[in-house]
Input
Amino acid sequence: MGRWEPDSQGRLQQAALALYTERGFEQTTVAEIAERAGLTERTFFRYFADKREVLFAGQDSLLVQLTEAVVAAPDSAPLDAVSSGLQALGAFFDGRRERSRSRQAVIDANPALQERELTKRAALSAAMADGLVQRGVPATTARLTGEAGAAVFHLAFEQWLAADKHDLAYFVRRAVAEFIQLAGGSTRGRG
Output
C-alpha cells in the first residue's frame, strides 16, 4: 500500500490489530504498525497519541451518540431510555463482530489495556447518566441507572462476542430484561 492510498486511520488500526494479535501488544512498536500500514510514524501520530489509542479510537463520538440517543428516547422510565440508547449504539457494531473479538482478545491479554477499558466503561456510564439528566432525571437516579446500563452493556457485549448470530441490540434487550427481573425480585433476607 502506498502513502497516497485513502483511509490512513483505518489502515493503521487494521495493521495494529493484526500485529497485536500476532506478536502481542507490548512487543509491537509504532514503527512496525506504520510500516505494516504503508505509512510513516509521523502519520501514525497524526491520528493517535500512542499505540493504546489505536484500540480506543472513536470513543468520544460513540459517547456523544449514546448521550444523544438516551436524550432522544421516547418518554419512558430511565432504564428504558438507557436501553434504547444502548440498542441504538449497537448499530455501530453491526458487521464488526470479528474485529471486536480480535480487539477484545488483545485487551484481555494486557493489564494496561484492561485498565483503559475500565475507564471506557466509566465514560459509558457517565454518558448515559448525562443523557438522563438532560431528560430531567434526578442526578442520583441518573448515575445509578448509568452504572446499571454500563453493566448491562458489558454483559451484552460479552454475549454478543461469544455468539454467531443476533445483533448486539438483541443481547442488550435480553440483559435489560434479566436486570429488570432481578431488580424486581425479593429483597427479603438481604441487607
